[in-house]
Amino acid sequence: MKIVGISASPRGADSRTARLVAAVLEGAASAGAETEFIDICRMRFEFCTGCGTCYATGECPRVDDFSRLFETMVGADGLVLGSPNYINGPTAQLKQVLDRMADAIHCRAFDGKYGCAVCTTGGSGDDRVVEYLSGVLNNLGAQFVGGVGVALGADPGRLSGALLQGEALGRDLAEAIATRRQYPDQIAALEASREYFRALVTANRDIWAHEYEVWADRGWL
Ligand SMILES: Cc1cc2nc3c(=O)[nH]c(=O)nc-3n(C[C@H](O)[C@H](O)[C@H](O)COP(=O)(O)O)c2cc1C
Hints:
binds flavin mononucleotide, 221 residues
């Protein structure tokens, strides 16, 4: 079982979010998972230009670290998405990466995977970021196990409690993967969105040849 943790704070070793992601990975490792921590702010990504090439060919014309990161994510059974709250959303660095995944969303690239999300913030908004990231995981076809958000502005000492919660979340993520846990509400929502994308990909099959082929190969049409 492989679990990849992504930290999207640009503050490197000073990042509290990075520590929270690492705590989730420690919990997962204690439950038997192989883990990998990735600081996306040490990688180089171009913006999505909305050209649609990925829909048609499965390839992005941008030359950067995205395909390396994406292959690592697709190779994992579980994903931890971690970001500080920047104006009630994830950091621009993480959004830049997520925007490169429109084709992955159409193709439900994380089907069968599990994920969780963590956020640190100054005073508020951590819950909004966790909710946003959980929605992204569902968009990609994964089931969401849970999240940890913590506001550290008034009392930075709250991080220690959040790290313990993070470790518990990591253990739970590993257990969800090991037992192939099913969340009935999410399964129903994933099935509804599968119907939506089946219709979308079929309607656009002439221009989105790659996506139609992926759906056909998986026997989803
Ligand atoms: C550009 C920027 C935007 C921020 N926006 C918010 C915000 O909207 N609400 C809030 O409570 N804290 C906000 N913060 C504070 C960070 O969310 C908080 O310090 C966080 O713990 C930083 O995480 P890090 O240590 O992993 O970098 C912001 C910080 C920065 C630099």
